[in-house]
């Protein structure tokens, strides 16, 4: 038990150390241009008129794009440039494997998440400080019986920046119900605090669960962290302590690989229950979505 806590602590200290060591570069004039055909170009605007843009790229030289073919334009931040190379933008900073960070989705941003095929959730930023998610397990696929036991939930969340890219606090609720079953409401009310930027951070959380109309009187403690280790790769850990259940634990280690289109999470979750260890693999996929007009 003590060894597990020590490993998690070292992992988190490693993250915090790298938060202050992140390389900063000037990228005020760099943008990523996504076309309607799914292509991406990164560079600065060399020329613009009413119908087209000429983009100066480092690998393709001067590229001309018709404005009508541009789906989205995204500013490349200083934190995305390492040793002169542009890293893929992190669009999955609001959560770890499953638990949330205090960072929130911006207005119009969102993502679809799937875990082990069965778990499905869509989350959208309503404002820059408030988001809403809707999730379910599609038991209706097995017929009428599945519809009667359909698990469905919502996840409203508030996010407040205390110091941009350094300290955020947040609060939210997961509120769900299992189909037509009486007294089957379930959920958790939680608060979180995240230290660090969107690529390297640690989150401390506290939550009270409820089920069947009764609220738990002992909180669940959550500690999660992530750090970027390559252009497309992250390390992740997400851990829970249940002090009201003989100090049992749920902890995890793994990674995330991101592209412009999807992110794949993988790793293992381990349990420590009554002095015994157990484990199971983890596999998830998420894709960012955009709501509203292009920039």
Cα-to-Cα separation, first versus last residue: 50 Å
Regions with little confidence, pLDDT below 50 for 5+ residues? 15-28
The helix/strand series, from N terminus to C terminus, equals: HEEEEEEEEEEHEEEEEEEEEEE
Pairing-aware structural class of the strands and helices? mainly beta
> Main β-sheet, in a few words?
14 strands, antiparallel
Query: Which shape, going by the Cα principal axes?
Result: globular
What percent of residues are in strands?
over 45%
Helix content: under 10%
Mean pLDDT: 84
Supply the number of helical segments: 2
- Overall strand count: 21
Computed CA radius of gyration, to the nearest angstrom: 21 Å
Describe the structure.
This protein has helices spanning 2-20, 144-148, and strands at 31-35, 40-48, 52-57, 62-66, 70-75, 81-82, 85-86, 109-115, 119-125, 130-136, 151-154, 157-163, 167-178, 186-196, 200-211, 214-215, 220-228, 233-242, 248-258, 263-273, 276-290. Strand 12 and strand 13 (167-178) form a beta hairpin. The longest helix has 19 residues, at 2-20. It is mostly beta strands and 295 residues long. It is built from 2 helices and 21 strands. Strands 8, 9, 10, 11, 12, 13, 14, 15, 16, 17, 18, 19, 20 and 21 form a 14-stranded antiparallel β-sheet that branches. The model is unreliable at 15-28 (pLDDT under 50). The N and C termini lie far apart (50 Å). It is globular. Helix content is 8%, strand content 54%.
């Amino acid at each position: 038990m003590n060894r597990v806590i020590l490993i998690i602590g070292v992992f988190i200290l490693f993250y915090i150390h790298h938060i202050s060591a992140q390389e900063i570069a000037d990228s005020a004039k760099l943008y990523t241009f996504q076309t309607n055909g799914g292509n991406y170009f990164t560079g600065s605007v060399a020329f613009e008129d009413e119908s087209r843009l000429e983009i100066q790229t480092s690998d393709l030289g001067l590229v001309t794009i018709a404005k009508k073919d541009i789906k989205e334009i995204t500013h490349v931040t200083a934190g995305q440039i390492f040793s002169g190379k542009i890293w893929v933008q992190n669009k999955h900073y609001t959560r770890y494997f499953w638990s949330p960070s205090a960072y929130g989705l911006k207005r119009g941003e969102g993502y679809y998440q799937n875990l082990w095929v069965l778990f499905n959730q869509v989350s959208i930023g309503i404002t820059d400080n408030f988001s809403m998610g809707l999730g379910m397990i599609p038991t209706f696929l097995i017929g009428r019986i599945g519809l009667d036991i359909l698990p469905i939930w919502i996840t409203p969340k508030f996010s407040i920046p205390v110091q941009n890219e350094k300290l955020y606090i947040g609060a939210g609720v997961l509120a769900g119900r299992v189909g037509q079953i009486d007294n089957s409401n379930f959920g958790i009310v939680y608060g979180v605090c995240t230290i660090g930027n969107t690529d390297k951070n640690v989150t401390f959380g506290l939550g009270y669960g409820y089920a069947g109309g009764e609220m738990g009187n002992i909180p669940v403690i959550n500690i999660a962290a992530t750090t970027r280790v390559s252009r497309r790769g992250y390390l992740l850990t997400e851990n829970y302590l249940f002090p009201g259940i003989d100090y049992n634990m749920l902890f995890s280690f793994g990674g995330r690989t991101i592209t412009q289109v999807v992110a794949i999470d993988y790793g293992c979750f381990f349990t420590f229950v009554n002095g015994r260890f157990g484990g199971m693999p983890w596999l998830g996929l998420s894709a960012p979505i955009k709501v509203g007009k292009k920039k």
